Amino acid sequence: MAPILSNQWIAKRRPHWDRLAFLLSRSDQHGLSDLSRAELQEMALLYRQVAADLSVLRRDETARTYTDNVNQLLARAHHIIYSRRKTTWLTLFRFLKDEYPAIFQRQLPYVAASLLVSVAWGLLGAMITSARPEFMRHYVGPAMIATMEQHKMWTESIVSVAPQETSHIMTNNLSVSFVTFAGGIFFGVGTFWFLYRNGMMLGVIAVACHQYGMSVPLWSFIAPHGSLELPAIIIAGGAGFRIGHAMLFPGGYRWKESVARGGIEATQLVSGVIPMLVVAGCLEGFFSPSHAPVWLKFTVGGLLFTLLLTWLFRRVKALPTEA
């Protein structure tokens, strides 16, 4: 049988196998404490890279020697990484503080594309509703319009059942974000569709509330939790686009290898939205629909958004990149 893999591919990937073997040997001799934080991060990244390489090697029966060697290397790495690593609150805190901002910044072009799509559809929805007020009924429905005609917010009922509603809100927000993320597996089209729905809905509701004199109640409701929830959806959309890009433009990688690498990076990116949505769900269930002063709601929203940007764009040491 003719070989599937080229010698150039083997030569390109071998240094990564050798580097992982070197780090594993050091940890075998002196323990993980002998490795620096950067080397630990590199080891974890190399583990994922080599796992992707193994899936490629298994497709070539003539590369059995390489397959066996890489498989043994991964078994060693799995034992060292997962048998000795304990996930603690401190570990999660360090990930969010030190690693996630670098992950976000590295995937910023995809997040920017997600933001652009959302804003574009939001503006289009606002313009269509302004020109044709009847268009809003297609999105908000007669019940919500009847509530706005009475100058009431449809969110007022949340206050009386805040504890139960908060759990539902968190689940719903997580579902929306992860469906937007998962839509990337359809070559990014699914992500585009969910961003369209979310952006269009917000644009339509914004103009509808303005026409009924409800802009202040709307934005004072959205401001506290929306300062985290809306960016979380945008980031999830960016993760979806990362998958779509990997599927459409594999570059110098084989298609499956490109998708595997894109999936890893996208999953890392979307993982950071979970704490954002948990906090947003608490705010949306208790604080946003409350009768707190409007100025306080806008202040809380502004402070949270400022803290979010400070966290995401803080200067951190760059993580090792996918080779």
From TrEMBL:
Matching InterPro entries: SpoIIM-like
Ranges that cross the membrane: 108-128, 174-195, 202-222, 228-248, 269-288, 294-313
Alphabetic keyword roster: Membrane, Transmembrane, Transmembrane helix
Keyword Plastid: no
Identification of the protein by name: Stage II sporulation protein M
Source organism of this protein record: Telmatobacter sp. DSM 110680
